[in-house]
TrEMBL record:
Residues 68-92 are annotated as: Disordered. GO terms for cellular component: cytosol. Pfam families: HTH_3 (PF01381). This is Helix-turn-helix transcriptional regulator. Residues 11-65 form the HTH cro/C1-type domain. SMART domains: HTH_XRE. It comes from Neoaquamicrobium microcysteis.
Amino acid sequence: MEIQLLIGWNVRSLRVAKGLSQDDLALAADIERAYVGHLERGKKNPTATTLAKLAGALECHLTELFKDPPEEASLPPPLKGGRRSQIQPRRG
């Protein structure tokens, strides 16, 4: 598996296992939500600094982002609820 795809697979697997949305992870890692999506699809090549931020936000060791998935593993399904709205409704 290509390294960018491997990192993306692991980021998504760890994120979903923790019940985090892409927005949640982006906020915790201080990166853009769109970047998380691109990263998970293997479209970005993250820097060491970004990898460290992601590992911290996912509460895992940096090496977890480089582990080969089990042969029978498949990507986790998307979280229910999809993308969260950034706009909060006005109250009263």
